[in-house]
Amino acid sequence: MELDHRFELPVGIDRAWPMLLDIATVGPCFPGAELEKVSGDEFSGSVKLKAGPVRLSYRGQAKIIERNDRTHTATIQATGQDSPATTAAMLVTATAAEVAPGRTLVDLRTTLALTGRPADFTRPLMISVGNDLVSRFADCVSTKLVGRASGGAQLIDVENPDEVAADREEALAHPGGGTGPNRGTGYRPIAEFSVDGRPASGLLRKVLPAVLAVVGALVGWALLRRRPDEPDSGRGSASD
């Protein structure tokens, strides 16, 4: 599954980007997670989650695979595991850009793969939970910057690569059939998602958010790990 989120910070890029790199300040915006080890650009940690009768304890790792301070982008690869059968893998690309004086937009593109129990409710719940997680992070960072929330995050797009491939194959096999707005995109509006006939948003209080909180925290650790005054190793630097 691929999720695109966007949130705004009410400051310029010269304040927003250093803040996002200051783990001492922004780290607490990821509640429930504990960073256990940092070794260069590799990180490990754990998080314990509980929702109703469901309990999971994840351990995970993350690594910065690309970072460019000039274009304000970073790509992070993260994994988490509760048991051999319950795992998560995530690739996140974060981009920050100043769109006006005192306004910085942050875009997150997340590719997520799950196995085990969380995969049973991945599509409807992870979309809502992912939006909630990013919104909480955005509001927390904004509050630290200017003393007020930013208004949360916006879900820009949802895409399932398997559905994209299936839609394209069907379109090739039946070129004259189906012209709906979602055909060939693997995308469905969030309002359409349900589990057992119930809206997905109503289940958030009953079903565990699971892996997104874990890998979200790992992504945060990776993205925020370096302080502004630390020299860049040159990874992912822009070409001349």
UniProtKB/TrEMBL annotation:
Transmembrane segments: none
Pfam families noted in UniProt: COXG (PF06240)
Matches recorded under CDD domains: SRPBCC_5
UniProt xrefs under SUPFAM superfamilies: Bet v1-like
Name of the featured protein: SRPBCC family protein
Organism listed in the record: Nakamurella aerolata
